[in-house]
Amino acid sequence: MQVCLNGARGADHGAAVPLSPGALATAAAEAVAVGALDVHVHPKTPCGEDTVAPRAVAATLEAVRAAVGVTVGVTTGAWAEPDPAARVAQVREWEVLPDHASVNWHEPGAEELARALLERGIGVEAGIWSGTDGAARFAASPLGPRVLRVLAEVTDPDPATAAATARHLLAAIGTAHGRPVLLHGEEGGTWPVLTLATRLNLARRIGIEDTLHLPDGRRARSNAELVAAALRLGP
Q: Burial of 215 by CB count in 10 Å (0-12 exposed, 13-18 middle, 19+ buried)?
């Protein structure tokens, strides 16, 4: 079970969203204590915006690693640095390296970014989003066999249709170069997709990045509360 601590959310989403390195470290420790085995985090600027800047990445990784003994990964989403060349340049300047980083295959410059990460010994989570051409691009990628896993992201927020969308996405991904698949949803689709991933015995994730709510609709107080609820669905 991977915990996704904050995502692109900011302070306007409530006090449960960890933003600073210290808050992320505390949230990670709490989530790991209840069963999370991997951490995915979005380093932030002082203003709370996602960033891939070396200093912010280093501060976040150092704080989280001081609090937990599991693998830790970061985002490289285009919103954190819209210019593909600048994004690759910043990755090459990282002095503290994550265990893995997610690369959204439908975004411009994904191949170059993934190659830069692999050259630095960083595992790549190939982000394949529903509603994009990411699956087709990944199927044709020579880097496919080298990624750590496929991060199958169901962007359908409707709880009534998200599971069906997930099945279509998994079919589009196919054998995924033989790489393991982590399946997850977002917002209203989070829990139906997580339930499907559990039934299919796929890797899963949960956290405030994906949803602010527990299965019964109550507002989650922490990432740890979401992880505990997810693990009750099954191993």
A: middle
Strand (E) positions, 62-172? Answer: 71-75, 100-104, 123-129, 149-153
Asked if 215 and 191 touch (Cβ cutoff 8 Å), the reply is yes
Angle at 213 between CA 211 and CA 218, to 5 degrees: 175
CATH topology of domain 2-231: TIM Barrel (3.20.20)
What pLDDT score does 147 carry? 98
DSSP SS3 for 196: helix
What are the distances in angstroms from CA 109 to CA 88, 101, 136?
8, 15, 15
Exposure string of 163-172, with b = 16+ CB inside 10 Å and e = fewer, is: bebbeebbeb
98-133 tens-digit pLDDT: 999 999 999 999 999 999 999 999 999 999 999 999
Reference 210, options 124, 170, 151; nearest CA is 151
189 in Cβ contact with 154 (< 8 Å): yes
Judge whether 219 and 213 are in contact, CB under 8 Å: yes
pLDDT at 234 over 90: no
Does residue 149 surpass a pLDDT of 90?
Answer: yes
pTM: 0.96
Q: Please tell me what DSSP assigns to residue 218.
A: P
